[in-house]
Specification:
The complex is a heterodimer of chains A (about 280) and B (about 240).
Chain A (H helix, E strand, L loop, with lengths): L2 H11 L3 H5 L3 H10 L8 H14 L5 H26 L9 H27 L25 H22 L7 H27 L22 H4 L6 E2 L2 E2 L10 H6 L7 H8 L7
Antiparallel strand pairs in A: 1-2
Helix pairs in contact in A: 5-6, 5-7, 6-8, 7-8
Chain B lengths: L1 H20 L1 H10 L3 H10 L7 E7 L3 H25 L7 H25 L19 H22 L6 H25 L22 H8 L7 E2 L7
Parallel strand pairs in B: 1-2
Helix pairs in contact in B: 4-5, 4-6, 6-7, 6-8
The chains are: A mainly alpha (about 280), B mainly alpha (about 240).
């Protein structure tokens, strides 16, 4: 049987079939190369289940759309931040080639997150939110973000750590949504990888002597201006249990706080990014 | 388990290449919700009978308890590994790296103990690990294993999130997975700068991290766990 033909036939009736199955059309087409690995007998079963799932989830609720738009607005902002930071001439001499490579990698990830979320929203028949005009000084709080490399990386760290908190805070809205929750989680952990990398860069560059790849207490190592972005990260209670010294182990309060990243509600995130001109 | 040991490196690599070569299968699995079709696919894609999960081993249980026990099993594995690394550091380890490994050790212990306490009488027993394939005196061996475990952990939490019914547990898993991702990025950086989120783990088109089903994860992790694990009651959708 030729699966591509079947899908093409369906596409004549339902133009969005590929998007329903997978917002990433290219990935969907590529799937069929994997089909070779699937035992022939299981193919119709697999395809049937796939359709059932895709159509069942083809109309996301307003709450889900809200989360997707919220995420997209944040990704637009992050992308714009890294585009500017990558190109910034003011960093010359303090901007090691390897660091610039890292910023380029992160910028490209944010760009791809933007495209991915736009695709998911478009596939769901929604109009994706567009980028805003951003104020990277946050109303004058960071006047030299793009003139001073340590400041740039400090702000980048705060943005990444806050991005992690934002996705985490939105996740419960997507509970049991195999497609949307999994996609959000797959972005969330990438943001955490970015955060760890930026933090480690700051340490290696000597911008901070105490910064770790993980968040220790609420010591954000970037200054009081972003204290709100780290408020609550210091907690040592999880699910009603005190993690410090849990079950007689040597887990310190610092380790207890580092072991768990904390969420922020969309309202909290909205308030934190508003000075940067990010609106929803 | 006897012939697993000798096949370990090959199998780990094989599992890796199957998954890496077909990222699309991962996205496909998301759409099937890893339901019956997912299992059919898995069976086809992993044709060799690996026997990592059985119906007579330690039963993880069903529903959210099953998923929490699954996470508990993985955290037991990670904690045991880092406890060994911290106790017998690799040759010529520097102070900074030792400090990081001690940090990570306590993070994994914290995760393990949280699951143990949260599960209470539903918790699976302590698992017996098999680290015979790891050379703890070798930095390369330890870092390669750490990288594999951390990336695997990230994909495990990412892939199991939607199976949870409790928003509290989902929130808890979310708090842990980003810390695992921080570990993964750090380990990757000390192996090779700027590999923190390369295409081994983050797809080039959408910049999404990996997700794996519990069965996929256990097939890989099982090489390091001596205790038989029965995942047959885990939710699949």
């Amino acid at each position: 049987m030729n699966i591509i033909n079947i899908l093409d036939e369906i596409e004549k009736v339902d133009a969005d079939v590929y998007d329903r199955l997978n917002p990433r059309r290219a990935a969907m087409k590529d799937f069929f190369s994997v089909g070779k690995k699937v035992a022939a007998a299981s193919v119709p079963f697999a395809i049937g289940a796939m359709f059932k799932k895709a159509y069942a989830q083809s109309a996301p609720s307003d709450a889900i759309v809200g989360v997707l738009q919220f995420a997209l607005a944040l990704e637009h902002f992050e992308y714009a931040f890294y585009v500017r930071g990558f190109n910034e001439a003011g960093f010359n001499g303090t901007y090691a080639a390897a660091d610039k490579t890292a910023i380029g990698i992160i910028r490209d990830h944010e760009a791809n997150h933007v495209k991915f979320l736009q695709g998911v929203l478009t596939g769901a028949g929604k109009t994706p939110v567009t980028p805003k005009t951003y104020d990277f000084t946050a109303g004058g709080t960071f006047p030299n973000t793009f003139a001073n490399y340590p400041t740039f990386l400090a702000v980048a760290q705060a943005l990444e750590d806050t991005g992690v908190r934002a996705y985490k805070g939105a996740a419960p809205t997507l509970i049991r949504q195999s497609v949307y929750l999994t996609a959000a989680l797959n972005i969330h952990s990438v943001e955490a990888r970015h955060a760890a990398k930026i933090r480690y860069m700051r340490l290696l560059n000597g911008h901070s002597t105490t910064v770790k790849p993980w968040i220790s207490g609420n010591d954000n190592t970037t200054g009081t201006a972003v204290a709100g972005n780290y408020a609550g990260e210091e907690i040592v209670m999880q699910a009603g249990l005190n993690i410090t010294g849990i079950n007689g182990t040597g887990v310190t309060a610092a380790a207890a706080s580092e072991s768990f990243d904390e969420p922020l509600t969309p309202e909290q995130v909205t308030a934190l990014v508003k000075p940067f001109g990010v609106t929803f | 388990m006897k012939n697993l040991k000798q096949e370990e490196p090959e199998m780990l690599q094989q599992s890796g290449s199957i998954l890496d070569a077909s990222l699309r299968r991962r996205s496909f699995l998301q759409y099937t919700g890893a339901g019956a079709a997912g299992i059919a696919l898995l069976a086809a894609g992993c044709s060799k009978d690996r026997g990592f999960t059985s119906t007579d081993g330690v039963n993880l249980g069903s529903d959210d308890i099953g998923i929490l026990n699954y996470a508990y099993a993985l955290e037991q594995l990670e904690a045991a590994f880092y406890i060994q690394v911290a106790a017998t550091p690799y040759t010529n380890i520097n102070a900074a790296e030792l400090a990081y490994f001690k940090d990570i050790q306590f993070h994994e212990i914290a995760h393990r103990e949280l699951f143990k306490s949260a599960l209470g009488t539903s918790a699976i027993p302590s698992l017996e690990v098999n680290f015979s394939a790891i050379n703890f005196t070798s930095r390369d061996s330890v870092l390669a294993t750490a990288k594999a475990f951390e990336d695997l952990g990230v994909s495990a939490y990412n892939g199991a999130g939607y199976l949870l019914k409790s928003a509290t547990y989902l929130g808890l898993a979310g708090k842990i997975v980003s810390v695992e991702a921080r570990h993964a990025a750090f380990i990757r950086e000390i192996i090779s700068p700027n590999s923190f989120s390369n295409t081994e783990v983050v797809d080039a088109t959408n910049a999404l991290d990996k997700s794996r089903t519990p069965l996929e994860v256990l097939a890989i992790a099982g090489a390091y766990i001596k205790t038989k694990i029965n995942a047959s009651n885990l939710p699949t959708s």
